Amino acid sequence: MKSKATVADYASVPDADGRFGIFGGKFVSETLMSALDELEELYTRLSNDPAFQRELDHDLAHYVGRPSPLYEAVRWSDQIGGARIFLKREDLNHTGAHKVNNTVGQALLAKYMGKPRVIAETGAGQHGVATATIAARLGLECQVFMGEDDIKRQTLNVYRMRLLGATVIPVTSGSKTLKDAMNEAMRDWVTNIDTTYYIIGTVAGPHPYPLLVRDFQCVIGREARAQSLAQTGKLPDALVACVGGGSNAIGLFHPFLEDESVAMYGVEAGGLGVSTGEHAAPLQVGSPGILHGNRTYLMQDDDGQILHTHSISAGLDYPGVGPEHSWLKDIGRVNYVDADDQEALRAFHTLTRVEGIMPALESAHALAYAEKLAATMSPQQSIIVNLSGRGDKDIHTVAELDGIKV
Amino acid sequence: MSRIANRFKALNEQGRKALIPYIVAGDPGMDATVPLMHRLVGAGADILELGIAFSDPMAEGPVIQLAHERALANGASLKRALEFVRQFRERDQETPVLLMGYANPVERMGYVQFADAASAAGVDALLTVDIPPEEVAQLNAELHRVGMDNIFLIAPNTPEPRIDRIVEQASGFIYYVSLKGVTGAGHLDIVEVAERARTIRQHTNLPLAVGFGIKDAESARAVAGEADGVVVGSALINAMAATIEQGGTLDAAMEAAASLLGEIRRGIDTLH
């Protein structure tokens, strides 16, 4: 498994069965199989259809506000005294995170399939907001499944979704977080499969979701690559992105996979520390298993039960990861590392104070690792960090951790 | 011929339908599972379907989700489920036992180890909700090596070419999911079940059992008219949970399940 992939390999995954090496696949109940086959067929056709691509590009430019800037954090870089750090500003997208790149694309698929209703799972609420937003725009009925615990820590996003006309359904089963929201969304989808399109928010789930979400998010990396060449005359030396399910990371990494000089770092949520068991770092301490429709690295016990996770950020609080990340880990193309709660919190404050940019706590994990990495590099080198979302939604969490009442 | 095939053959010769209760190993208590299995057989079960508790039971409705949560809290696991079957076999070598669960515990144990351990314990078949025929080749090779059946679900929306693909991999019987939804849902459409049963029978000679949404003697009887067997799960689990919630003992809970199963048995037997 540890052999280095050749250049051609990156374009060959997933294969026709949705496999990335041993990872991926379609592990779902029979009722969902024909819906997945239908989606796969439609997507294969539309991804080669210039009219669909034009419609998507139009929405990305005029509704999302793309391209997002590649911003050089000069003051922060100088303070660290190492590599030049560039931030890919996905926080400036409409709705404030990279999630909307995917929901715009999948909502178009729903429209082409003639489904009047969309559902989504959400952790931090960013994917839920992005789904509710596009549903409002297209006049689709929208229900968002969200763990009861996440509803408590993301009250602002819950209200945003309601303002947008979506129904937020609290999930009280299991650990009451993102994985349980995904279980509940799957249960709803099985029940309402004739009328409903399930907009999965990350590069996980059964095939073809890991493929199509990756394709919709790759706009991040394609832009960043061109912007880096335009601004620095060369490719970056390293890319850094946080990894929960892993959609913002795949979006940034994928267009660079064939560029061997570009090192890549996927930053998992270290929580209270990966040695404590209180974290969300399946790629570092998990093992392969099957959950939510795909084979991938999971946090699980010896009996194959999925373990509870912990992270300061609801969006990273997930025991699995997209199957392509599992594959990229095993072939050694991407380095998977972690930043813990405290490091992320410090990075949140640092970027806010030094650059006037308030990052999402998810993105703050990437920033925390980038700070360490930059310090080991020279000013002739550059790093692109995916600033995947803005931090407004986390202000209450941060205030509480800092012991301040707002 | 497998214990399951034998059982269906014998029932068919008697003109009877198979009654298949589903319980979750470890619910309502670890000490209750083996006695409950015997009592369900006493109440008229022909095949036992023993659920393997899982942290993320995606195909289940609220009643069975809670059963999985209770079982896990009681210390249930795949290994303990196999141990229950081994104990059950000390007194009953006749009744077929089917394990039903999700892919990951089996995956984690390893297909080879699972097949060896399950067959040694006296398990006759496996049904994994989330391993479709596309993904089943390796697992099936191991199950067949030890003579176990693999039971597959067919859904209301499974297209006919897929039915062929499923029955190719299946043995023992076919489990038709009577509705689009989770276990225990309430919108069973008997006309549609009859229609689909006819379609499925055009593709296979395997016995056909129907489950999801069957909650009492009346719905069981209606479904049994169209199939070779009836699976009842949520209703039994609900009867036990309600008994315990009202302060009843484990014994009273088991009695409630057995009594409901007995009613259902009588319901489907009045077909003749």
Comma- or semicolon-separated keywords:
heterodimer, A: 406 residues, alpha/beta, Rossmann fold, 2 domains, 6-stranded mixed β-sheet, 4-stranded antiparallel β-sheet, globular, B: 272 residues, TIM Barrel, 9-stranded parallel β-sheet
Describe this entry's structure for a reader.
The complex is a heterodimer of chains A (406) and B (272). Helix content of chain A is 45%, strand content 18%. Chain A has 406 residues and is α/β, with parallel strands linked by helices. Chain A folds into two domains: 7-58 and 99-213, Rossmann fold (3-Layer(aba) Sandwich), CATH 3.40.50; 65-96 and 217-401, Rossmann fold (3-Layer(aba) Sandwich). A six-stranded mixed beta sheet of chain A has the order 3-4-14-9-10-13, with helices on both faces. Chain A has a four-stranded antiparallel beta sheet with strand order 1-2-12-11. In chain A, helix 3 (50-64) packs across helix 5 and helix 15 crosses helix 16. Chain B is α/β, with parallel strands linked by helices and 272 residues long. Chain B has a single domain (3-269), classed as Aldolase class I (TIM Barrel), CATH 3.20.20.70. Helices cover 50% and strands 14% of the residues of chain B. Chain B contains twelve helices and nine strands. Chain B has a nine-stranded parallel beta sheet. Chain B is globular, with a radius of gyration of 17 Å. The model of chain B has no long low-confidence stretch (mean pLDDT 96). At the A-B interface, strand 2, helix 2, helix 9, strand 11 and strand 12 of A face helix 3, helix 5 and strand 6 of B.
